[in-house]
Amino acid sequence: METQQIAPGLWRWTAPHPNWRNWPDWPDVPEEVGCVYYEAPDTVVLIDALIPAGEEEEFLAHLDRDVERLGLPVAILLTAEWHRRSTGELVERYGAEINPSPLPQGIEEIAIRGAPERQVAYFIRPHGALVVAEIFAGDGKGGLKLCPSPALTSREELDASLAAIMKLPVERLLVSHGEPVLSDGRRRMEEALALS
User: Fold this and answer.
1) Interval 63-67 mean pLDDT
2) Continuous H helices in the chain
3) pLDDT > 80? residue 148
4) Which domain, by its residues, includes 109?
5) How far is 106 from 122, CA to CA, in rounded Å?
6) With contact defined as beta carbons under 8 Å apart, do 15 and 50 qualify?
7) pLDDT at residue 52 above 60?
8) Which of 7, 33, 158, 194 matches a 20 to 30 Å C-alpha distance to 53?
9) Which CATH number characterizes residue 151's domain?
């Protein structure tokens, strides 16, 4: 497990995905997937959380301390249904709500349309941080690549979703796959779109 403080109250951690070898049609994807912890004013937020195998006790002890220190409810946000990962265990441990409505303070949801499955991005406005499932991924060279769903049925709807994202003041892009972008996020997204 690797952890990285992105900003005060905003952390990203990575953990090996247990089903990594069985991902179809996606070569060169790293085994580690990104997850996000955010201290909203009203909620402890976990996005696409995966408890690291072999480090469960240490990870949960840290999380227990944070939850106790803040004294806030826990919410789990999923950028996609297939990112449930450790959701069941965390719901049981903390009584967490999944994809609550309304969302925790400071977080906005942007639908990624164009395919039949539910996929969203979460914009953490106080930190200019966009959290995505697979619509963008690290390209292995410090930049991003666009990764439309294999189930894409309408590029027009996808482009409309991307246009909505591009209106946001994104400074950081926290991807599930590959390295995050920690500055100039909007420009990096523009570069990825220009190559798609």
Assistant:
1) 97
2) 56-70, 87-94, 155-166, 185-194
3) yes
4) 2-194
5) 10
6) yes
7) yes
8) 7
9) 3.60.15.10
pLDDT score recorded for residue 5? 96
Q: pTM, whole model, 2 decimals?
A: 0.92
Dist. CA 68–CA 55, nearest whole Å: 20
Give the distance, in angstroms, between the CA of residue 114 and the centroid of all CA atoms in the same chain.
19
Total number of domains in the chain: 1
The C-alpha angle 90, 95, 96, rounded to 5 degrees, equals: 65
The maximal CA–CA distance of the chain, rounded, in angstroms, is 46
CA distance 126 to 184: 16
* Contacts of range 61-67, beta carbons closer than 8 Å, 24 or more positions apart: 63/37, 66/37, 66/39, 67/94
Dihedral over alpha carbons 5, 10, 13, 17 (to 10 degrees) = -160
pLDDT band at 2 (very low <50, low <70, confident <90, very high): confident
pLDDT at 69: 97
Beta carbons within 10 angstroms of residue 183's beta carbon: 10
